[in-house]
Amino acid sequence: RERLRAAVLDPLAARLDGPDAQARARMATAVFLGIGAMRRRLGPEPPTSADVDRLTAVFEACLAE
Question: What single-letter DSSP state applies at residue 17?
C-alpha cells in the first residue's frame, strides 16, 4: 500500500490541479490497475481505436476537476 502511494498516487496527485487531487489520482489508478487485472485474466488483446478512445474518456473523467 505504501509503495503504491509513494510510487504512483502521490506523484500523480502532485501533478493534478484543483480540488481532490488525491481522490482523482486514486480513481485513475484504480482504472489502470483494473485494466491490468482483466488483461491477466482474459488474456491480452490488442486494443482497438474505439478502446483507446473510450479509455481516454474514462481517464479524462477520473482526472477532471
Answer: -
Print the domain residue range for 48: 2-63
Task: Look at the pTM and tell me if it is higher than 0.85.
Answer: no
3-class secondary-structure state, position 47: coil
Residue 64: helix, strand or coil by DSSP? coil
pLDDT digits (tens, 9 = 90+) for 10-19: 999 999 999 9
Split into its structural domains, the chain has a count of 1
Other beta carbons less than 10 A from residue 28's beta carbon? 21
Q: Which residues are within 8 A (CB) of 27 and not within 5 positions of it... i.e. 6 or more apart?
A: 62
